[in-house]
Predict the 3D structure of the following.
Amino acid sequence: MKFFVDTADIDSIRELNDLGMVDGVTTNPSLIMKAGRDIQEVTKEIADMVDGPVSAEVVATEYDDMIAEGRHLAKIAPNICVKVPLTWAGLKTCKTLSDEGTQVNVTLCFSANQALIAAKAGATFISPFIGRLDDLNMDGMDLIQDIRTIYDNYDFKTQILAASIRSANHMKDAALIGADVATAPPGVIKAMANHVLTDKGLDAFLADWAKTGQSIL
Ligand code: G3P
């Protein structure tokens, strides 16, 4: 499973990227707002740093404007993936930009039918939002499973990009189901390394080591 980082915070991306853990980055208007940076500038900086797709989202809602924004964003760097919402205008934009050779991430997906129609429109990535479904007492992972089944049934090339990931368990479950990519906040990716027994075991080893009076160096 590829790891995308879901942030526009340069320092967090750099830390994970230096460890070779970043296969791509996703941003959205809320994350750009949170970063407090100019969209063109920060997107360019991320795209230059990361060796993989960097999603930058359009904010227009009508087809002509979405196309104009998408083409503009795509010019920032060769690895820009234009993100469009799963609306009818978004699907039309997806089809046009995909036909032009631009990668497209169709976002705000909450149903298997939406994922199916996005694949038909030529999406490079489909972004089902797990956490936001869980928030409504629905099971976001069931959606990932349904999309996996449908895409495999018909050999769709659209990649499942599990989004709205809120916990390390979400990462594990997405990987078990076979999501192609998971995009998560940096803190969730780092939390995957944590285990209480690791901490406990290390404490015990260090306590015993202190009793030996030895030093390695
Ligand atoms: O990738 C989409 C993500 O940014 C949404 O996450 O936590 O706002 O639902 P969240």
Remarks:
- Residues 194 and 208 are 22 Å apart (CA to CA).
- Residues 2-186 form a domain with the TIM Barrel fold (CATH 3.20.20.70).
